[in-house]
UniProtKB/TrEMBL annotation:
Its cofactor is adenosylcob(III)alamin. Belongs to the methylmalonyl-CoA mutase family. Residues 170-408 form the Methylmalonyl-CoA mutase alpha/beta chain catalytic domain. It comes from Edaphobacillus lindanitolerans. This is Heterodimeric methylmalonyl-CoA mutase small subunit. The keyword Lipid metabolism does not apply. Keywords: Cobalamin, Cobalt, Isomerase. GO terms for molecular function: cobalamin binding; metal ion binding; methylmalonyl-CoA mutase activity. GO terms for cellular component: cytoplasm.
Length: 564
């Protein structure tokens, strides 16, 4: 076919009903609803969206969203980590020379910087934007005191510091009213709750202000962006709609554009296989750029163990790739008009606004924090996420799926919020189990038993255990000889379905007193096997956190024969 023939070729249009018929045929008897998925926000995602999914006023909402975004470009806010002020200064200068867009400080100094260091940093923040998030007594704030009075008007950026009245008064161009949901997101908040919490906090601030527009000129919001790409895009877009509605409640129909800072979330970061964190952060950064963030901060892939100059560089380059290769900084609201994104944006907006109203009816953010309402909500949401991971309904690669048992993980560095992350419970068990000895007793042919052994090994790998694989046995006598010769104290029986009942029953009948046995698979008469001495089972759909906790108890004190 020639180029001209290709240009002249046309295809028949297909109706929605024809698409449904084709899709259902490919599902081999399953209904089309089988392709629907439920988000943590309680939103049902469909496999296909059309114009019929958009409500009246979509064009006006798109316009409102775009008016709330200052432009397609964003500021690169790459964190610089150093406890030493002098080292921080040098690393900041190098970072800026390599493309960082601001002086970024998020805590860490253990001492006051010397006067020359403070003076040089003061000069930097009059030339580059500054982003600071720290306690009101942090020694870094001495940098602002070192800025010459005649140059204070040049300081722009964001200061998320409690009791920042002096900064606001002395630096009129600096935004000093920060609303952040970073902590709430890490503790379990879904997109709806994040937005509701953000505006509940903003309402508390606005209650103490006389002029909403003047407040808005000093206001900025910080959101964490996770790995749910389309939800994060829609969340940032829904924020623009919510802020417009929020402002109208104070009589401001055309509010100024308020900056949004997007920080890649640590919620899905893992200690195991940390390079996967690079993929997670890149996904979050991309969603933030598409969603219209004004500034983006990418957490280094090894942030949990402290970070390095190399990982900071890689994190910074994620944003350079988005700008220089993807050209994400050249299109305003590129997701606008997508049936799926618009429908998701509107649903998040409506759900988040309803939850915000609920919070306000209960007294606002301070009240729901004091009476435990928010803590209970976040805890419940986090437990649901971890439960889904434990059942392997969701995946956290390298943690609950495709874990590398040969990788020895370390404990997280202080201040890395290890306990709040989704991987925390898995890593805690792995730190106590990794390297333990577990034997798989294999029966039958390799072809028949390998799927059973591989599944069991995959569960053990989550605990950092690479099991010892036995030879292929034809009889229980061979297996028991192996147990005695290798002083096995705990083993998992792996046999094809046709043999498993007979094999397990035989082993239980003749096993040594000190041997603890589990079996892989589902059995017709499980109570009878447990009564006969079987410890438990490895099977699909089980809670692997509970199973590994059970294994931890079995292996406590050693796995040698007679000690288990």
């Amino acid at each position: 076919m020639t180029i001209q023939e290709m240009k002249d070729t046309s295809f028949d249009s297909s109706s929605l009903e024809e698409w449904r018929e084709t899709a259902e045929a490919s599902l081999k008897g399953k209904p089309l609803a089988a392709l629907e998925t439920e988000t943590p926000e309680g939103i049902t995602l469909k496999p296909l969206y059309t114009a019929e999914d958009l409500s009246v006023g979509t064009e006006e909402r798109i316009s409102a969203i775009r008016e709330g975004i200052k432009g397609p470009d964003w500021t690169i806010l790459q964190e610089t980590f150093s406890e030493d002020p002098a080292a921080f200064l040098e690393r900041t200068k190098e970072s800026i020379s390599r493309g960082n867009g601001a002086v970024v400080y998020t805590g860490g100094w253990t001492a006051e910087g010397d006067k020359p260091i403070l003076k040089e940093l003061a000069g930097l923040i009059t030339e580059w934007p500054v982003y600071v998030r720290c306690a009101p007594d942090d020694p870094f704030l001495g940098v602002f005191g070192a800025v010459d009075e005649g140059r204070r008007h040049l300081v722009i950026g964001y200061a998320d510091v409690e009791r920042s009245a002096d900064l606001s008064r002395l630096f009129p161009a600096l935004r000093t009213i920060g609303v952040s949901t970073l902590d709430e997101q890490l503790q379990g908040a879904d997109a709806v709750t994040e937005l509701a919490v953000a505006f509940s906090k903003a309402a508390g601030i606005a209650a103490g202000e006389d002029d909403f527009t003047a407040m808005a000129d000093r206001l900025f919001f910080s959101f964490a962006v996770d790995t749910h790409f389309f939800t994060e895009v829609a969340k940032l877009r829904a924020f623009r709609l919510m802020f417009r509605s929020f402002a109208s409640a104070y009589g401001v129909e055309e509010p100024p554009a308020v900056p949004v800072i997007a920080c890649t979330s640590l919620r899905t970061y893992t200690l195991a296989d940390p390079y996967v964190n690079l993929l997670r952060s890149a996904n979050g950064a991309f969603s933030a750029s598409v969603g219209g963030a004004d500034a983006i901060s990418v957490a280094p892939f090894d942030r949990l163990t402290g970070g390095t100059a190399f990982s900071e560089r890689v994190a910074r380059n994620v944003q350079h790739i988005l700008k220089e290769e993807v050209h994400a900084d050249r299109v305003l609201d590129p997701a606008g008009g997508s049936y799926y994104i618009e429908a998701l944006t509107e649903e998040l907006y409506r759900k988040a606004w309803a939850r915000f109203v609920e919070f306000e009816e209960k007294g606002g953010f301070d009240s729901i924090s004091a009476d435990g309402t928010l803590a209970d909500l976040l805890s419940g949401l986090q437990e649901q996420r971890i439960r889904r991971l434990a059942l392997r309904k969701d995946s956290l690669i390298g943690t609950n799926q495709y874990a590398d048992p040969d990788e020895s993980i370390q404990a997280a560095a202080a201040g890395s919020s290890a306990d709040a992350r989704l991987a925390g419970p898995f890593e805690e068990l792995r730190l106590s189990l990794q390297g333990k000895a577990v034997h798989l007793l294999q029966f039958g042919s390799l072809k028949d038993v390998k799927p059973v052994s591989d599944f069991t090994a995959g569960v053990l790998a989550v605990g950092g255990i690479r099991p010892e694989l036995s030879p292929l046995f034809d009889s229980t006598e061979e297996a028991l000889d192996y147990v005695r010769e290798n002083a096995v104290g705990y083993a998992v029986v792996c046999a094809p379905a046709a043999q498993e009942e007979t094999v397990v029953a035989g082993l239980l009948r003749d096993k040594p007193d000190g041997l603890r046995l589990d079996a892989a698979g589902r059995f017709k008469d499980e109570p009878a096997l447990l009564e006969a001495g079987l410890s438990g089972f490895y099977r699909r759909g089980q809670d692997i956190l509970a199973k590994l906790e059970e294994l931890k108890g079995i292996l406590k004190g050693g796995t040698q024969h007679g000690q288990a």
